[in-house]
Amino acid sequence: MERNDWIRSSVASTTDSCRLGSYPMSCQLRLRVVSLKAQFRQDKRQGKTRQLVILLGYEVCSGLLHFRLYRGTDFSGDAKDMPLCNLIPAATVAAFVDECGRMVGLPIQQVLFTQKIMDIAPEAGKVAYLSLSAGKTLLRGRKEEAGDNELLCSFDSKRTYRTVSGEHPFLAWCENTNATEVASVLSDMVKQHNKSVALPRLEKARQTLESMMRRSHDQAQLRHGSSPFAMPIPAFLQRMIRHDYVLNDFSLHKVRFYKRPFEDFFAFPGDRGRLAMKGKLGDTAT
Questions:
Q1: How far apart are CA 270 and CA 68, in angstroms?
Q2: Are the C-beta atoms of residues 237 and 8 closer than 8 Å to each other?
Q3: Taking a C-beta distance cutoff of 8 angstroms, is the pair 46, 181 a contact?
Q4: In the chain, N or C terminus with fewer CB closer than 10 Å?
Q5: Which residues lie below 8 Å from residue 251, measured CB to CB, with a gap of 6+?
């Protein structure tokens, strides 16, 4: 097996403090939700209202921005009585964090929740983790080792996010367009930001990480010599293997041009639409 193939087949996680050479990159992902009672162009004509949720991610060291937009089912009654999604299921959050991690392409040290986005309350003596593989949150003892693809969670607020209605510039904009156009415009804005701010930093950090992996591999190969036994994976790469989101599914070119579509509640966890009302989404419907 070629060296690069061996590295890429082995790589996937983090050291406790990911300080890559002289370039500090202890990646921290901050999450926030913007929730609106919105009317798109067609809703306005039909006198209907729907919830619009934007899940936002910001990686502190690189400055990378990412988002997902969720369009709720239309509601015909008084907007004050509209059922709302006030918490995002862990499966939805985990899928979003996993995508953010793949776009960054570097180990994520922790995820900071700036609002109460999920239904989880840390207990005394316990630490909260988000499992990207299982799509759920876990509580572990402070000295207990995290499992594969588990990211440390920290919480900046115990307050759930509010759903804004009434006079708001964004709401006025929605009335003249649709969800596809909203997602497209927001995506273009995010891409411009990432191009000028995040991509130069990510390129440098990814190069440093690649260099460290190659050096770790070469040193292990030198120590292994001509032994007929399979070369053991070096300790550095063993730590990296624990989180497979570092596998570079997202090239920097893809990060730059990635288009973020909108998603419907009724097709994804977090649904307040038809499938949730019928109970077809089980515990994932809130």
A1: 13
A2: no
A3: no
A4: N
A5: none
What sign has the CA pseudo-torsion 130, 135, 139, 142? Answer: negative
Report d(CA 285, CA 33) in Å as an integer: 18
H helices within the chain, ranges in order?
Answer: 3-10, 41-46, 90-104, 169-174, 179-193, 199-224, 235-241, 252-257, 274-277
Return all residues near 68 (Cβ < 8 A) that are at least 6 apart: 54, 55, 96, 260, 263
Please tell me the distance from the alpha carbon of residue 11 to that of residue 99, in angstroms, as a whole number. Answer: 17
Q: Is the pTM of this model over 0.90?
A: no
pLDDT band of residue 252 (cuts 50, 70, 90) is very high
- Buried b or exposed e, range 124-151, using 16+ CB within 10 angstroms: eeebbbbbbeebbbbeeeeeeebeebbb
What is the Cα 136 distance to its own chain's centre?
Answer: 13
| Cα 230 to Cα 193: distance, rounded to the nearest angstrom | 46
Amino acid at 252: L
Average pLDDT over residues 42-65: 94
